[in-house]
Design a protein that fits this description.
Layout lengths: L17 H36 L3 H29 L2 H19 L5 H15 L3 H11 L2 H12 L1 H19 L2 H9 L2 H11 L21 H10 L1 H32 L3 H31 L5 H22 L3 H15 L3 H10 L6 H18 L1 H16 L3 H10 L2 H38 L1
Helix pairs in contact: 1-2, 1-3, 1-4, 1-5, 1-6, 1-7, 1-8, 1-9, 1-11, 2-4, 2-16, 2-17, 3-4, 3-5, 3-8, 3-9, 5-16, 6-12, 6-15, 7-8, 7-12, 11-12, 11-13, 11-16, 11-17, 11-18, 11-19, 12-13, 12-14, 12-15, 13-14, 13-15, 13-18, 13-19, 17-18
Length: 449
């Protein structure tokens, strides 16, 4: 199979109507939006919490990044294994209830340790969100529509950021940061019930070609073995992690940057970043999947090129944003940086699922998100906070500006990994095609005998 060959289109054998499939996709996207409202609400509140509890930037980086991510990714692996063999919509429903309840508990925290423990609880709950959802979506949509569907789902990241910044900024300004945690946390319990009672668990592999729907269940060891044998996966997964390193690192400290360098209050930060980051990120995320499906129909490498090229374009925009002397120009450049830096998520998930059998997809998503969140969410904000604290004696209020600029340069490494992954992708696709053909021959021989 050459690099320019498209994989055969699978006939959509879904028993569900197009309207119901769209309902499921929209509801799962809402779940993902709530996921990010609860995850990122701390970002818009962190300056108020810092002043109230006397915290450092390093402690803020731990709260918004590493402490959350380490539990999110470690618990995500066993939950993904559960999702590959169990009822996925029930797992998602339970996860939403846990993380929403823990978000509300953040509002009761009286010190740093209590807030840290509550955030860990949010991370544990959110670990059960995306891998099962990715797997369900791939069973509702055929391969030629999967990139667009998964990118639509991934816009939940930025819808959540938009709503979190708007709601969090206004409530923090009016009622204080503790009330904000209650307001965004408790509604998730109602959404958990919607997931449990309105989503139907689909048959695994129902939209894929061949006999994959009836393939035997795989073990954790087998899934990891397949992933590690994929030469492209190692590079594009690291590329996704490094892209997230930039987006989480700069994004989690952008409210603090605007407050410290331009004198914004929490209400101004919330409304500005809600529109810029929320809309820009959602548009970029959807376009990433759309263009990947269109261009990737003839050459699958476009699924990774669509990640690399916009990621490179985002770098000069981000540098212009942090070094701009006027807030309106900083916000305009930030919009462009956010939009171009958001193309990567949907195509990365889609190509991971293309390389795996349906019985491995939840685990594949979990491993991808382990790398993405450990490198990106875990290390990005922590890196920005540590570098800012180290530069503070020399640069004062501008220490955060230089820390954000240094972090944005990691986009170069991310793009390099995506390009290398794209170069190795045709070999992995050809190897999969040969293995499927061999498996089909063996099944035919067994049937004849």
């Amino acid at each position: 199979m050459s690099a320019n060959d498209a994989s055969p289109s699978a006939e959509n054998t879904s028993p569900y109507s197009p309207n119901y499939r769209r309902y499921v996709l929209v509801l799962l996207t809402l779940v993902y939006a709530i996921n990010f409202i609860d995850r990122q609400i701390l970002v818009i509140l962190q300056e108020s919490i810092k002043a109230d509890m006397g915290l450092s930037d390093t402690q803020l980086g731990l709260l918004t990044g590493f402490a959350f991510a380490i539990f999110y990714v470690s618990v995500g692996i066993p939950i993904a294994r559960w999702a590959d063999v169990g009822n996925r919509k029930n797992i998602i429903s339970l996860a939403v209830a846990v993380w929403s309840g823990m978000t509300a508990l953040c509002g009761l925290a009286q010190n740093y340790t209590q807030l840290l423990l509550a955030r860990i609880g949010v991370g544990v709950g959110e670990a059960g969100g995306s891998p099962p959802a990715h797997s369900i979506i791939s069973d509702y949509y055929p391969p030629e529509e999967r990139g667009t569907a998964l990118s639509f789902y991934s816009t939940g990241v930025y819808i959540g950021i938009l709503l979190g910044f708007l709601i969090g900024g206004w409530i923090n300004h009016t009622f204080g940061w503790r009330v904000a945690f209650f307001v965004v946390g408790l509604p998730g319990l109602l959404v958990a019930l919607l997931v449990k009672y309105t989503i139907r668990e689909p048959k695994r592999g129902q939209c894929d070609s061949g006999d994959v729907a009836d393939a035997p269940k795989t073990t954790f060891k087998e899934t990891i073995g397949v992933l590690m044998a994929l030469k492209s996966f190692k590079f594009f997964a690291l590329g996704a992690g490094l892209n997230a390193f930039v987006s989480y690192g700069t994004g989690n400290f952008m409210p603090s940057f605007l407050i410290r360098n331009f004198g914004f209050d929490s209400l101004e930060v919330g409304s500005s970043l809600a529109l810029i980051t929320g809309i820009g990120g959602a548009v970029g995320t959807f376009l990433g999947g759309y263009f990947a499906d269109k261009l990737g129909a003839k050459d699958k490498r476009w699924y990774l090129w669509v990640c690399a090229i916009p990621g490179l374009i985002s770098l000069p925009f981000m540098l212009s944003a942090v070094f701009s002397g006027q807030s309106q120009y900083a916000l305009a450049f930030l919009f462009l940086a956010t939009m171009s830096g958001a193309f990567y998520l949907g195509p990365t998930i889609a190509i991971t699922h293309t390389l795996l059998s349906p019985a491995m997809r939840a685990m594949g998503s979990a491993v991808l998100f382990l790398i993405l969140n450990l490198v990106g969410l875990g290390l990005g904000p922590l890196f920005v906070g540590v570098v800012s604290d180290l530069l503070a004696p020399t640069y004062g209020v501008d220490s955060l500006r230089y820390s954000l600029a240094i972090t944005s340069l990691v986009a170069l490494l991310s793009a390099t990994c995506f390009f290398i992954g794209a170069a190795k992708l045709p070999g992995d696709l050809l190897r999969n095609q040969k293995q499927e053909a061999k498996s089909g021959d063996l099944n035919l021989v067994a049937a004849e005998s």
